[in-house]
Each structure stands twice: as C-alpha cells, then as structure tokens.
C-alpha cells in the first residue's frame, strides 16, 4: 500500500502574486564579502532563443539581497535591463565596459572571461 503525503498547511503550492519569492528556512546564505575580497568575472554570452548578446557577471559571494541590489545598480548605470539568478547577474546587450568601470570603482576585483 502506498501512502500519499498531504502537503503541510504552510507549504506553498502555487502563487500568482508577482512579487512572491519563496523563502527556504533551511538555506543558509553566506555573509557578503567586502568588494575588495571578491573576484567577479565578466563574460559575453548569446541567448539560446534569439541569439541576442547578454553580459553575465559571475563569482559574487554573499546574500541574495545584496546581489539583487548590485544588479539593480548595474542595470541603472549600464542603462539596460537585468536579472539575477543563483549568484549570477545577467544584463541585456554588450555592456561589459560600463559594468567593468562601475564594478572597478566600487572596489571589486574584475576579470574578463576567456573567449
């Protein structure tokens, strides 16, 4: 006999609220390192769907809220739209130079990805 587990009452099954982000209670986020202790990598990739160029910034170590804040600042400085996924920042178009200048002024260690 197979026992089916019913969902707990505090478990979210589906939400249509656009600003909803599910919070995982057991996930431990690392503390955000100082900018001079981080080495970020800037790369140019192409999207799988339409082949449009996107700039990706990887290597951020810290809390998700700090990553989102950095992504919003970069999107404003680079005058483009962006998103953040799993410690990566994705910016539309080729804005590597603007991102490099901004991050270098903030004190981050920067390197370009090998092509």
Keywords:
115 residues, alpha+beta, 23% helix, Translation Initiation Factor Eif1, five-stranded mixed beta sheet
- Compute the number of strand runs: 5
Structural class: alpha+beta
Shape: globular
Q: Please tell me the overall pLDDT.
A: 83
Please indicate the percent range of residues in DSSP E strands (runs of 2 or more): 15-25%
Helix segment tally: 2
The helix content is 10-25%
**Biggest β-sheet: count, sense, barrel?**
5 strands, mixed
CATH class category name of the domain at 35-112: Alpha Beta
| Strands ordered across the widest β-sheet | 3-4-2-1-5
Can you walk me through this structure?
The longest helix has 15 residues, at 64-78. The chain starts with 38 loop residues before the first strand and ends with a strand. The chain has 2 helices and 5 strands; from the N terminus they run ββαββαβ. Strands 3-4-2-1-5 form a 5-stranded mixed beta sheet, with helices on one face. The protein has helices at 64-78, 96-106; strands at residues 39-46, 53-58, 82-85, 88-92, 109-112. It has 115 residues and is α+β, with helices and mostly antiparallel strands. The protein has a domain at 35-112: 2-Layer Sandwich (Translation Initiation Factor Eif1).
């Amino acid at each position: 006999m197979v026992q089916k587990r019913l969902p707990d009452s505090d478990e979210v099954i589906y939400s249509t609220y656009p600003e909803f982000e599910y919070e995982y209670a057991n996930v431990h986020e690392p503390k955000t390192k100082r900018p001079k202790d981080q080495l970020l990598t800037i790369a140019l990739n192409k999207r799988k769907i339409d082949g449009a160029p996107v700039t990706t910034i990887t290597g951020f170590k810290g809390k998700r809220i700090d990553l989102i804040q950095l992504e919003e600042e970069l999107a404003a400085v680079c005058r483009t739209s962006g998103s953040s996924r799993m410690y990566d920042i994705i910016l539309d178009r080729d804005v590597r130079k603007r991102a490099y200048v901004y991050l270098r002024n903030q004190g981050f260690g920067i390197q370009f990805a090998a092509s």
